[in-house]
Fold:
Amino acid sequence: MIPQLRAWHEKYGPAGLAIVGVHSPEFFWEKSHDRVVEATKKLGVRYPVVQDNDFAIWKRFGVRAWPTLVLVDRRGIVRYRHIGEGDYEATEAMIRRLLAEGG
Structure:
């Protein structure tokens, strides 16, 4: 999913898309801030990544699996959710739709 997020960040960021990665660790060793910073550099992630070690964001958005992608409009309303890899065309279509409606 990271290649698609990277591409959408570059393509739609200037139009108003704000991507925020949320790192909710599956294993104890993934909780280290230094490891997250190292991984984002290694993977070329240029959008912000939030550490969610206590799973507060995970719970707030009702996430139950890795990866889960959530599109939230400018009013804070969840407009789209996809669990797992794939369906990138539908996700990108929704990104374009939300940007077109100013959401």
Notes: The beta strands are 21-23, 49-51, 68-72, 78-83. Residues 88-100 form the longest helix (13 residues). The longest strand covers residues 78-83.
